[in-house]
Amino acid sequence: MNTGSDRGTNESAHGEPAAEEAPQHESKAPAFIKANRSLHLSWQVGVFIVGLAVIGAGVAMLVLPGPGWVAIFAGLAIWATEFAWASLVLRWTKRKVTEAAQKALDPKVRRRNIILTSVGLAIAAALIGFYLWKYGLTLPWNIKDQ
Fold first, then answer.
1. Which residue from 58, 61, 100 is spatially nearest to 79, judged by alpha carbons?
2. What is the 3-state secondary structure (H, E, C) of 1-53?
3. Can you give the pTM of this predicted structure?
4. How far is 84 from 35, CA to CA, in rounded Å?
5. pLDDT at 146
6. Which residue positions in the chain have pLDDT lower than 70?
7. Residue 5: its pLDDT value, please?
8. Is 56:88 a contact under the CB 8 Å cutoff?
9. Is the dihedral of CA 56, 62, 66, 71 positive or negative?
10. Could you tell me which of 86, 82, 105, 104 has the C-alpha nearest to residue 94?
11. Distance, CA of 97 to CA of 105 (rounded, Å)
12. Which residues pair with 17 in a beta bridge?
């Protein structure tokens, strides 16, 4: 069975020139670690555990004080040093964040966001004003039956 492994890298299985392929992912481990298979596997397990810990901390920081998204992206970057799939996910995420930033800079979107924020602040101010008019500065748990 011919697997096509004897063909040049610039031809597809049908003899046509191959389309532009993504560059091969290479481990960022030092050469002496890559030379020994079991040491390299241990290195990859360590990188996975460290990346998982950073991502776990980032997920926790989404609800606790701290830079949650920054930590999640840092964990992905740690994984991307060893794993091709993490590199692809990180590249996709960077592209989506860039697209969102460009969209947010669009004058129409900015104007809409400013209007929505202003309306939301006006509604919040009206609700706070009504509360203060009705109850004064008394907190809800200190209100007696009226």
1. 58
2. CCCCCCCCCCECCCCCECCCCCCCCCCCCCHHHHHCHHHHHHHHHHHHHHHHH
3. 0.55
4. 19
5. 56
6. 1-23, 25, 139-140, 142-143, 145-146
7. 43
8. no
9. positive
10. 86
11. 12
12. 11
* Half-sphere exposure of residue 118: CA atoms within 13 angstroms, side-chain side: 6
Residue by residue, what is the 3-state secondary structure of 42-94?
HHHHHHHHHHHHHHHHHHHHHHCCCCHHHHHHHHHHHHHCCCHHHHHHHHHHH
pLDDT for 62: 93
Q: What whole-number distance in Å separates Cα of residue 94 and Cα of residue 26?
A: 20
Q: For residue 39, what are its two tokens?
A: 């040491």
What local confidence, expressed as pLDDT, does residue 1 receive?
44
pLDDT of residue 3: 46
Q: Which two tokens stand for residue 28?
A: 């960022």
Give CA angle at 42 (38, 45), nearest 5°: 140
Residue 27: partners with Cβ closer than 8 Å, 6 or more residues away? 34, 40, 43, 44, 81, 82
73-111 pLDDT tens trace: 999 999 998 888 888 998 999 999 899 888 888 888 889
